[in-house]
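WARN retry 2 of 3 for item q-0093 after timeout on previous attempt; input resubmitted unchanged.
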Amino acid sequence: MPFFWIWDFIKPAIEIVILWVVFYNILAFFEGTRAFQVFRGISYLLILFLGAEVLGFTILSWLLTKIFAISIIALLIIFQPELRQGLARLGQQHLFSITLGEFEIVAIIEEIAAAAYKLARLKVGCLIAVERATRLQAYIESGLEIDAKISSELLQSIFMANSPLHDGGVITRGNRLVAASCLFPLSDNPSFSKVIGTRHRAAIGITEHTDALVVMVSEQSGEVSVASDGRFIPVVNREQLIGILKDLLVNKEKKKK
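OK item q-0093 returned
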C-alpha cells in the first residue's frame, strides 16, 4: 500500500515534467520560424484548457476541446515543411563525421573562406550552403546539379556577374560542390528588419528549414556573414570566419561525441 500511495503522489509530477520537456523542446526547435508564434499560442490555450478543467468550466472546456481538434489538422497542413524537415533530422548523424576527417573539413573551410573574402573585396554577392545532417535534395533539384571538388576558384567563377549560374546559391555536400543557381526559401520571420534584402532572407530561410549553414556575402556592402539555426553570426575577418566554421562543423560535433 505505501508504494501505491507514493506512486499516486509522484505520477502527476512526472507527467508534468514530461509535458514540460516536450513543449520546451518543440518551442526551442521552432524558435525563429513562423511556427514558433503559433506553438506559443497553443501553449497558452493549453494552459487555459487545464485551468477550465480544474475550475469545472464545462462549456469552456468543450469549446477548447473542439478548437484543439481543428488545430491539429490545421497544423499538419500549414506547417508540413517544418514537420517534414524535423522528422527527417531524427536519427540522422552528422554528414562530416561519417565521410570526412577533420583535416579534410578544415581544407574545405579554407577554400570557402578564401572565395568569400575575394568576392567580398569585389562586392560580388554569394550564398554558399553547406549540407549537414538534413539532406538538401529538394533545393539541389531547384538549381543546376554539379559534381566538382570544392575550390575557391570554382566558387568565385560561379558568382561572377557574367556567369549564367550567379543567381541563387550553391550547395556543398562533403567535399563536393553538388549544385549551383539553387533557390532557397525566404524567411518571413517578423523579427528581422524589413530592410534586409532577398539574399539575407534566403540565407536565413534555408537554415530555418534545415540544419544547413550558409556563408553569405552582401553585394551592397561586401560584408561577410554566416547563417545558422535561423540567425546571423557577424564576421569581422577571414580568420574569424574560419574559426566560426570550424566551431560549427568540427568542434560542435566533437562536443556531441
